[in-house]
Amino acid sequence: MPKDAASTEKVQIVNDMLKEDRRLTIRQIVETTDIHATKIYQIVSDDLSMKKVSACWVPRMLKDEQKQNRVDVCIDLLCGLQAQPQIFLDRIVTQDESSL
Fold first, then answer.
1. Average pLDDT along the chain, 100 residues, taken 10 residues at a time
2. Distance of CA 5 to the CA centre of its chain
């Protein structure tokens, strides 16, 4: 299917934006341009052959001191759980690290 000039222009706009900042999201591009989100996704995936890759930073190698600290924390948590299980569990707060 041949592309019209407007479509080629949209591809160029999105391409230029992503060259400037590869961390942009579809939503951020929509807010900056008058291009619909579905069209931007199509441009990025089909025309520009790009895909979003997300990664969580994790330590590659822990030092001995860091390993020992993790062991100490785990022992403290187990002792607290064994001493007063219900009180301990009521005080635990969890969080998804991807939101940090």
1. 73 91 87 92 88 58 86 92 89 67
2. 34
**Torsion sign, CA atoms 62, 65, 70, 71:** positive
Domain count, the chain: 2
- Please report whether residue 59 resides in a domain: no
pTM of the model: 0.50
Structural domain contains residue 12:
yes
9 vs 12: CA distance, rounded Å: 5
Q: Give the domain range for residue 42.
A: 5-47
Decide if 55 is inside a domain: no
